[in-house]
Task: structure prediction
Amino acid sequence: MGVTLVFGAAGQLGQCLQQLGRERQLTNLIFLPRTQANILDEAALQSVFTQYRPTYLINCAAYTAVDKAEEEADTARRVNRDGVENLARLCGEFGTTLLHVSTDFVFAGTGNQPLIETDEAAPISVYGRTKLEGEQVIPAHTGQYFILRTSWLYSRYAGNFVKTMLRLGQERSEVRVIWDQLGTPTYALDLADCLLHIIDSGSTAYGLYHYSNEGVASWYDLAVAVFELSGLPTRVVPIRTAEYPTSATRPTFSVLDKTNVKAALGLAIPHWRESLKACLRQLA
Ligand SMILES: NC(=O)C1=CN([C@@H]2O[C@H](COP(=O)(O)OP(=O)(O)OC[C@H]3O[C@@H](n4cnc5c(N)ncnc54)[C@H](OP(=O)(O)O)[C@@H]3O)[C@@H](O)[C@H]2O)C=CC1
Ligand SMILES: Cc1cn([C@H]2C[C@H](O)[C@@H](COP(=O)(O)OP(=O)(O)O[C@H]3O[C@@H](C)C(=O)[C@@H](O)[C@H]3O)O2)c(=O)[nH]c1=O
Result:
């Protein structure tokens, strides 16, 4: 069986893949943190590809600080666009299948219907724009790719909204959370499982797909569920976006339609509340 290289292995999704790799004893998964393989370092990438000649590459490396990206557009673009192009070029040269992850923030989010892959992407933040550019550079270099757009990732690893709520819940009796932005929380471990499923299945249904957990929620709903399921008495006050100013504008409605990924890969996707329970069990 060929080798799968994982870039950005120290991040949230990368650590979920490491967890599944350990649990399933997948010896052909090679994890490369930024310190070993910076996706902006073309010479280092060339030598990693020459050494491993990977069958698959999973790219978890990204610039994900949504607000900070507004002031660091060049840095965000280098990682989210140029870094992805470096990987795609080498995947093309080495016949490697690229599994790349993108975001619901490529959408303006002004509608009210679940978004399909062919809906117009019109990002309203630097992060969203640079992630869209990353999606768009891939097909020029290789046709062997899966791009999975996902949303609102959380897990026991790295920083994420669920962990922020648990921390705030310990510190305060009340938190104020936006209820007028709708999307779908996604357990990063479920996404990691989906990525490994693509590899296991040997699927050649290349292309762009939407993947999140099932259901719809506001950030307020998610916070309420976190406190309810973890038995914390914290009160959640619903507020509007205007009452929580941030540098980056976020989509109002970015629920992803998963019809295509389920059909192409034969996946059963858990509801976000079920996956949240599983994550909170891991965190406890
Ligand atoms: N988090 C979320 O809510 C969502 C994430 N996504 C997408 O999912 C993917 C995974 O996200 P997630 O795991 O949460 O992100 P994280 O920010 O947790 O992890 C990203 C990793 O990429 C690394 N990295 C940054 N720059 C480089 C570089 N030049 N070379 C190599 N590695 C680098 C970071 O290293 P360091 O820690 O040193 O900066 C970090 O370890 C990303 O593509 C993201 O855009 C999509 C929707 C939602
Ligand atoms: C901490 C906090 C956040 N919020 C709001 C702000 C924002 O609209 C929303 C989420 O805030 P965060 O900053 O935690 O999450 P954010 O960084 O916006 O999350 C996004 O990250 C990128 C990487 C993606 O790709 C997206 O899919 C999405 O997951 O919750 C509150 O209303 N109250 C709070 O106390």
